[in-house]
Amino acid sequence: MADVRSSKRSGDRGAPSSRRFWIVLVFAAISIAVVSCIGIHVVVSTRLLRKWVNTDPETLLLDYDTASSWMPGEIRVRGLRVRGSDPNVQWFFRMEKATISVSLFDLLHKQFHATRVRAEGLVFRLREKQKKSETSSAHAARLPPIPGFSDPP
Predict the structure, then answer these.
(1) What angle do CA 60, 65, 70 make, to 5 degrees?
(2) How open is the CA angle 79-118-104, to the nearest 5 degrees?
(3) Please, which pLDDT band fits residue 1 given cuts at 50, 70 and 90?
(4) What is residue 118's three-state secondary structure?
(5) How does pLDDT run across 109-133, given as a tens digit for each residue?
(6) What is the distance between the alpha carbons of residues 149 and 153, in angstroms, rounded to a whole number?
(7) Does residue 91 contact residue 124 with C-beta atoms inside 8 Å?
(8) pLDDT reading at 10 higher than 60
(9) pLDDT by residue (tens digit) across 45-55?
């Protein structure tokens, strides 16, 4: 009879430690999720994201008035402005208000992939780069202005 009681007691000791393990695991998972949400919000709501992206403003420039991200993978932004160029073209777009869903998996690989964009007040401008000597004044007058780049390109 003593053996049965001792085995019950040793079984009881295993249950609380197993339960404690699961409680700690759930608490850790929730803590990681909360810290991640706060971290992403801090990155987009401060100048930190712009500092990381704007290393070469002639190639790519990101700016916005305000942004927040309280849901993982979703960014709400106002006054978004993005400008870029390559050897052939210059481009610019502005969104007055946007909700952008991004792939968190791609962000882990340092790639930005917008899976869904809902925007208001979209403006998009694109123009080819040409030598000033090859551009007539009539053609140059029709090229859209792009903030931060000379006219004509």
Answers:
(1) 100
(2) 95
(3) low
(4) strand
(5) 888 899 999 999 999 999 988 777 6
(6) 7
(7) yes
(8) no
(9) 999 999 999 99
H or E element: which one contains 34? helix 2-45
Q: What would the two tokens of residue 139 be?
A: 């053609």
Please give the Cα distance from 59 to 2 (Å, whole number). 79
Q: Are 71 and 79 in contact (CB under 8 A)?
A: no
Residue 152: cis peptide before it, omega within 30 degrees of 0 = yes
User: Residue 31 in contact with residue 23, Cβ under 8 Å?
Assistant: no
CB 132 within 8 A of CB 103: no
User: Each residue of 74-108: pLDDT tens digit?
Assistant: 999 999 999 999 999 999 999 999 999 999 889 88
Q: How many CA atoms lie within 13 A of 8 on its CB side?
A: 5
CA angle centred on 149, ends 111 and 128, rounded to 5°: 75
Contact 67, 50 (CB under 8 A): no
